[in-house]
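Input.
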Amino acid sequence: MTKRKQVLKIGLLCAIIFLAIIFPALVIGKGRLFMIADFNSQQIPFNILCNKSIKNGEYFWNWNTDLGSNFVSSYSFYNIGSPFFWVLMLLPYDYVIYAMGPLLIVKFLVAGCSSFLYLRQYVREYRWAYLGALFYTFSGYVFSDLFYNHFMDVIALFPFLLLALDQNVKNGKKWVFSIMVAIMATTNYVFFVMEVMFVIVYFLCKVIAKEYTLTIKKFINLTIESVLGFCASAIIVLPSVLDLLGNPRSTVHFTSIKEMLFYALNQYILLMKAAFFPADLQNSASLYENRWTCTELYLPLVGMVFVISYIFHCKKKRNATFLMLIAFSLFSFIPVLNSSFQLFNRTYYTRWFFMFTLVLALASIKALEEKYEIVYSSAISVLIIVVLTVCFYKQNAINNKFYVWILVMALIGVLFVIVWKRYSNKYAFFVCGLMVFILLEGAGHFYNTFAYRELDDYFDNFVGMQARNHLKQDEFYRTENKTWNTSMVSENKDIFCWNSTVSASIFSFYNNVGVNRHITSSPDDGLYGLRALLSVKYIYNQDNEFLNTKVYSDDGIDLIYENLDYLPMGFAFEHYITEEEYQMIPIEKRHLVLLKALVLNDGDAENYQDCLEKLDKTELSHLDYDGFKKDLEERKKNVCNSFEQGKNSFSANIDLDEEKLIFISIPYEKGWKATVNDQPTEIVKVDDGLMAIKCQKGENVIQFTYVPEGFRIGMVVSIIAVLVILSGVVKDKYYQRKFMRR
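Output.
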């Protein structure tokens, strides 16, 4: 069988197995894939929004993400850099819901092909690489994180990166590694950080084991290719990283040596569970509160049986696979080492474990090919499974019956391997058992995360929201709908948003006004001042008792209230307070202060004294509902006559009787440029994250345009890097052909 047929065979097998798992769900969903949590609330609306936005030319600033957000940084982590996403771009945005299932099947096909090609290098017979590809493609990590649709993009492509590195160092194949670095960094820059750390350890293990023969020339060439590949991704990575620097999730650091070196006991127990048990449910964890951390390592059917066997029996302990097993085990168990995969952020995640599963798969197929004994390794596996179960029972840590399922599956896996090894030892029998196990494990996991009762409501009333949107589009306003991300599937601009990579200014604004902006924007009803400040005109399905509202419409699905305390976008202020004074106000009262005065830093407070007065401290004693109503009327006296959003821009008009600062509740970013009456004007950062601009007496025509910070530089760097890589490829091809002719 040719190598191409081998690759096609395993790719199709992986695709067919996954199709078999999700086929009932596709039938129930009439071709539309549906799961839970992130897949429904993020992955589907994100892909619909990005498809629509790019085709509409809104590729810099997106109005339908939170309060408006940098499009590149908001979605480069999720989809827009992935080659799989650009397949969706071939379809109209309203067909995206039908493509999510088939595209996920394609990702499984690619994962099978890439892992097979990588593993094939390390076994004598290709059939063992088939098993390794199945171990990797259907690992516990994959099933656990399936609803993180964008994770699968990285999982599918990652083995190509290691393959390109191996071929570069061992066989001198140039430029493929550089291309793969560019693809991986562009696909997902957060995962790329993890990949860089993994590749460094991988490379060192190979060098120490003398599997890489390295010269200075080779090392320099490899470094140049790495740098060029990364530079080629700058058009997406640079704007994203510059915006990420202000994200509070990126700056959580260790506070003690103990924290750096030791986990709590339960964490070590869960790490052991991750290796020896099939994947737990993330939406309804059967153990502790083991959710969202991606701590799963299980290889289908075999678990750790052949990994332990390999560790016991491999003849040359200084081989790279053995060293990697030891190294990555240490990285798993020591907090500071684990955190190195996310730039030493203390927040516990093990999202790099999909790479570790590839190493575990490699060790397993080597043990299988060498026919290592599994008496001790299977006994150890059973013992650990039993001990952990007793431990969970004693701690009363078992939350639901799904634990029984994963316990039974873990034991069946070990039992099958023992029986196969002792009585059959036939390859075909093992493959059949492995496929049946994957189907059972996959179905058991998938259909416990398949909220089929909500399916019709989701597609008809959520995804189909725009078809029954009665709201007038004759002015700029925002809505409030506590169903996540409705603005991404409609024309609304909603203040409730679930996206953890929005513009950094949104985090600082919300966190300073009493909204815990960690992953979502969800201001409490009691912060009624924010609704006026942010120009919320319509409220869906749940009236706010603090606001003056009336019923606007009721179609039997959505009951919509009109907020009569609505303020149009763009209004003037006469007073300010400093950031220091703002921080001294009780946090639950700050939303009311923001309607009285702009919050300025000391420098801006001094610069704009000609058009702003310092707020009298007596005003801070009126932070109540009556004060809110009074301030509301004051703000209505000077509002923009018009406000129009554009593609990566907006414009407004306002008439003033004197010079004033006009507040605009759009996140401040350095990429914004503004003019007033065609004259460049400074944009002032106010309220810890929003914008204001100085306007003169009389008529003012305001124009804002946006290009993400770093985009232009990133584009130039990317173009140069791509041209250098392409010229290198062409040059090598030319000399190769010339040599062949001779």
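The first helix runs from residue 3 to 28.
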